[in-house]
Specification:
Belongs to the methyltransferase superfamily. Its main location: membrane. Pfam families: Methyltransf_29 (PF03141). This protein is an alpha/beta fold and 450 residues long. Among the domains are: 47 residues, no CATH class; 217 residues, Rossmann fold. 39% of the residues lie in helices and 12% in strands. It is built from 15 helices and ten strands. The strands form two sheets. The chain has a seven-stranded mixed beta sheet, with helices on both faces. Strand 2 and strand 3 form a beta hairpin. Helix 2 runs antiparallel to helix 15. The longest helix is centred in the first third of the chain and has 30 residues. It is globular.
């Protein structure tokens, strides 16, 4: 005998439907589970697979908003609500960058490249004023047009300076009235595209379009020049970050930023780069001006710190170019010293072609303990997360980190691999799966009683 509680719904909704309705409800529930599962996964993909063009479009909007905020700050500074007006800095402060004061660093005795490094203790007095933009500054063009065309007034490159520059600059750039157009086909040596394809083939790929499949997603470009190599990598959906030393005029960083490319001032002559350990899949240096065999290999050790396991160090330098006998012998000696240092830090020379050398960092963390000599030594525990801008360390770090994941084990798509999930957590759609089963129970319950 049916209880009164179950008989009440039939009073309002009529007699109980046939069993075919229950079957239809079950099919609807299964379809609902499939839809929620796919939408949760696609929602995650939509977050992680944001097109690069959208990223840089948002970056352009932020720069435009910064210009608007600058004008608003200038207006607010003259308001009655402020006790003291925040005025504009003088023209002599147009190139002012906090913690980078070349003249003060030289007076303090810094040399051998350290005068270009970051020294906040020398940046006194502190100026409470708004650094004004260049006189003819204009809002950069939107991406992707702004990648290849910038305003010459934004980087303070005049026609006379352009004409007095070398042939390489004229080949890379074309100055037209108040704009600078970058030749996308030109670049390092035989062209950026040819150079990128050469690097890909040297690491065993068919073309540079396979960088993502090989685990190469983030690239640190040291001394990026005009940013042409980074701009090409961005077109391949890679994240290339430019880092270059401080320059008062003709800044490489400013050129890259005007082109919409990530860039920052950095110089590791004496201090570490402002990145955590194991951050990049590839480190690239094309005539970046660093003498890698100096300071007992500490520059290479710093590259090893930011390089992920299985990552690549690409060095393009005219070290093997035959010129004078003494100069050629010195370059061969430099190459020999670098090769000896790379063996000590468990790197293997993957390929060499013309003036390009590619080393690969080991994926085996036990390689460091199996070395004949413990030089350079391993860093102590806790050294992997130091404060930024610390002095260069003569020890190998990252070997005890949970983030020690070879780049070859990363998934080729936008979802994390199983090894990465152990470090970065679980997918959010599993919570939605619980909600799906809950809705399934409620829906099936009402289908049963009605």
């Amino acid at each position: 005998m049916r209880s009164p509680w179950f008989s009440k719904p039939s009073v309002f909704f009529g007699p109980r439907p046939p069993s075919s309705w229950l079957l239809l409800c079950l099919i609807c529930v299964l379809a609902l589970i499939a839809i929620l599962g796919s939408t949760s996964s696609s929602a995650f993909d939509s977050v992680t697979s944001t097109p690069v063009t959208d990223i840089y479009s948002n970056y352009r909007r932020l720069k435009e908003q910064a210009a608007v905020d600058y004008l608003e700050l200038r207006t607010l500074s003259s308001g009655a609500s402020r006790q003291k007006e925040l005025g504009l800095c003088g023209r002599e402060r147009e190139n002012y960058v906090p913690c980078y004061n070349l003249s003060a660093n030289l007076l303090a005795g810094f040399n051998d490249g350290e005068e270009f490094d970051r020294h906040c203790e020398m940046s006194r007095p502190r100026y409470r004023c708004l650094v004004r933009p260049p006189k003819d500054y204009k809002i950069p063009l939107r991406w992707p047009a702004g990648r290849d065309v910038i305003w010459s007034g934004n980087v303070k490159l005049t026609k006379d300076q352009f004409l007095s520059s070398g042939s390489m600059t004229k080949r890379l750039m074309l100055l037209e009235e108040n704009q600078i157009a970058f030749h996308s086909e030109d670049g390092n040596f035989d062209g950026v595209k040819d150079y990128s394809r050469q690097v890909a083939e040297m690491i065993g790929l068919g073309s540079d379009s396979e960088f993502l499949q090989a685990g190469v997603r983030t690239v640190l470009d040291i001394g990026c020049g005009f940013g042409s190599f980074g701009a090409h990598l961005v077109s391949l959906k890679l994240m290339a970050v430019c880092i270059a030393a401080y320059e008062a005029t003709g800044s490489q960083v400013q050129l890259a930023l005007e082109r919409g490319l990530p860039a920052m001032i950095g110089n590791f002559m004496a201090r570490q780069l402002p990145y955590p350990s194991l951050s990049f899949d590839m480190v690239h240096c094309a005539q970046c001006g660093i003498i890698w065999n100096e300071k007992d290999g500490m520059f290479l050790i710093e590259v090893d710190r930011v390089l992920k396991p299985g990552g690549y160090f690409v060095l393009t330098s005219p070290m093997s170019k035959p010129q004078g006998n003494s100069l050629n012998a010195r370059r061969r000696s430099t190459v020999a010293v670098i090769e000896e240092l790379t063996v000590k830090i468990c790197w293997s020379l993957l390929a060499q072609q013309d003036e390009t050398f590619i080393w690969q960092k080991t994926v085996d963390v036990h390689c460091y303990k199996s070395r004949k000599q413990d030089t350079p030594p391993l860093c102590n525990d806790g050294h992997d997360i130091p404060p930024y801008y610390q002095p260069l360390a003569a020890c190998i770090s990252g070997t005890t980190s949970k983030r020690w994941i070879p780049i070859q084990k990363k998934s080729s798509g936008f979802q994390l691999s199983s090894a990465e999930l152990q470090v970065h957590g679980k997918y959010c759609f599993k919570t939605n799966l619980f909600l799906t089963f809950y809705l399934f129970f409620i829906f099936f319950f009402f289908c049963f009683i009605f």
